[in-house]
Batch of 3 targets.
Target 1
Amino acid sequence: MEQQDSSPFDLRGKTALVTGGSGYLGRAFCASLAAAGARVVVGSRSEQRALNTAADLIKVDVGEHHGVEIDYRDEEVIERGFQVAQERAGTIDILVNNGHILDPRDWKDIDGPGFDQQMRNATGYFLLSRQFRDAAVAHQKPGCVVMLGSMYGMVASYPEVYHEIAPASSAAYQCLKGGILQMVRHLAVYWAKDLIRVNCLSPGPFPNPDGAPSELIARLEKKSPMGRVGFASEIGGPLVFLCSDAGSYVTGHNLVVDGGWTAW
């Protein structure tokens, strides 16, 4: 067998743009990509939060991490954010569409504008992905897009998990995540000839321990085959696989990291 000079998970020399990079899972994504050697451009609705997150990342061999403003609600801000990312970091090799504008209201309470705002996340994912694809093709370079799905894009939530504790996983959120998964399949097929891989990463129960009620976490744990929720440190490795040469023949795939939740 031919020996490789480096690990297939090595991302040295690559630059990754991660939207929602200052959030709970977003910070874990950025940290794992940086640990694998990638230079990271942190995207956030707040440029200052993005810059602060970038400053906390492990240093890389060449170049620096950066932060930019990207807001999925505004097409002009999406376009400007990607342009600024390129100006500051050069060619972008990896795009992680993780940012999310949340409306927590469930099916009983959400109104039309709230539902539309949830769908706007998918619109933003698409617009930014297309910009990334067009830039990669213009530079005649391969690229990798990872979009964030969810176990709730595959299965319904258990009503009793959220009852009288927190808003249920909303109908709009389920539509959003199911739609993202189908968009991944569609774009993967159309962009394969352009050497652009498009995949979905679907986390299971990864509640933020600093904000989620303890009773909610306990109920989630009871529904998990592994008997616990996920830790943020456990989501970055699967992302690195999808973004690296280790996943070079993987496209149109949904990588589920859910402790067995969807296996029931």
Target 2
Amino acid sequence: MNHLTKLRPFAALCCAATLGMASASSALAAEHTWQSVKEAGELRCGAAIATPYVMKNPRTNDYSGFFVEVCRDFAEHLGVEATFVDTNWDNLVAGVQSERWDLAMALNQTPERAKAVAFSEPVSNYEVSFLYNKENSKLPETVDGLEDIDNSNITVAVMSGTVQDKAVTANLENANIMRLPGMDETRLAVMSRRADVLADANDTNLLFQHANPEWAEIMTPNPPLARQGVAFGLNKSTPEADIQELNEFILSKKEAGEVEEMIDEAAKIAIEQME
């Protein structure tokens, strides 16, 4: 038996021990999310565009929006920098599951998503509203409820893969649903009259109406449609203590009125970008 043969069992044991240590280290890191973030020096925030939650200036590529500001402030709380990772709504949950980012911003708290990710304390609340052109002859003079838009002559534009997409799919039996990849596309569809109605979050529709007061009207169903908290999504392996730290941070911001200020500022930026 030569020296290399004698060394092979020892080398195999060393390799197995090293792999075991690496696995244990990886598992430990997964159990201490904020500690891992501090070691990396950055808090990665998955950013799917949804005004006024998450916005991106096309000229500067700078992010804004009240979820962006909360993410920045929480990164500062942890002593790291916030970085924003471009994504879309179809991939936002998958990215936090695969640890491509640490926080998914502005996720509606749905039972389906709760199977895939953990949720923080809601930063704000959400419900679906419907924006339409008041001069559209296919609609009644006053749109009071879903029954006024749920007919085969009406096309409802909605952003694909969102809560509002699921809500209109479940609640509109006769209307045509035009699913589009982004907010800009849905708004353009209504402005160009390719679609008759825009289904979107109540606050984003309100901003759009303020930017187009000469023609835009809003109908908000009663009872509310798909009312949910809007929160950060985290990997399911995130320790409860880390989630609690984020929750306490969010609650402190809300109680101090800072989140409301962030929402107001985001609204101003959003309206400026629409003009």
Target 3
Amino acid sequence: MLKSLNKKYPFNDNLKINIRSIVSVSLGIFLFLLFFQPFNIQNPDFNNQLIILATFGAITLVLLSIFRLVIPSIFSRAFSEERWTISKEITLNLVFVIFNAVAFSFFARFVGRIPVTFHIVIIIVIISITAATVLVVINRIYSLKQQLELLRTQTPAKEHVTALSEETEKEIELESENKTEYFKLPAGQLVLIKSASNYIEVHYLEDNKLHKKLIRNTLKSTEESLAAYPEMIRCHRSCIVNKKHIRSLKRNTEGLVLSLNHYPDEIHVSRQYALNVKQALKTS
């Protein structure tokens, strides 16, 4: 029980929301007293009755302003999100209820000339508790809206991560020229494809180790089948690489060369494909 009371509780320090809530609660008390007339006001003058009823609302307005605006602004550290707890919230509302009930009783007895009977005291206490409860509900709704807004702002980032995961998990299907042999693997595991006479060498990762598979097909036909995979780029007349596995692009005495992760040899980039390789790396 004590542990639950010591849990953090978000204190609403939004000035605009607090002012609007306090004014609404105070106005609600005035309208309730005006329409339901729970107090037996002896003053026959209707205008004086309105002033007395309006003063009850004003008392709540002043006390709520003190407890929800003035005190939190003076002791801002105590009311911070890190230090504010459920027990402190309950204590604050309980103190307000006591002050509000006492102020109502004194005003009713000595100014409004209203007989403060047990029945009247019960009504005063109920009104004070209701005022505190309504304010707590309003603040809680505001807090939940903030959390919802936070979740909405985080959703695009989550969708972006999901999209990247789906892209990584996309499968590439390679087939032989006569369509008798199929080889399927996740796009992220494919490192490069090299031409080997009438075959293609598929270099891929499995269990974090590089493997090679020969498939009877041409590199040109393979390139056409990989058109839907922008990460696969042609860098030489005899080689297609996965740009996600490119570690670096540099120039040596023979021209541009690519260094790939998990692949020991450098891959030459021909002049014909150099511009496409550079642009692909810029967008990666």
